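With this grant's support, the team has encoded backbone shapes as discrete tokens. A representative record is reproduced below.
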Amino acid sequence: QVQLVESGGGLVQPGGSLRLSCAASGFTFSSASMNWYRQAPGKERELVAGISGGSISKNYANSVKGRFTISRDNAKNTVYLQMNSLKFEDTAVYYCYVPRFNSWGQGTQVTVSS
């Protein structure tokens, strides 16, 4: 049974940083591409970043390039999203997603506010 559990969200001021974690279980994590999505109130869910199984390939939404970094630790079955220079518009629920199994985590709230 595929399980994804996000953590690390919270309230941060503009310009601040947060690191999200997604702990995965129930599948061979090291061979699976992983994605982070986000959904802001009243908006559609959007892809934020993705990473291949071996971390060779990474991709980012234009809105977060240069500020967010996706990484993974296959020994810990965990994917991370380091978010720096946070902006008001980064406020959203952030979700972990594994495309191979079309499976989502429960999400973690990130709120950027002064």
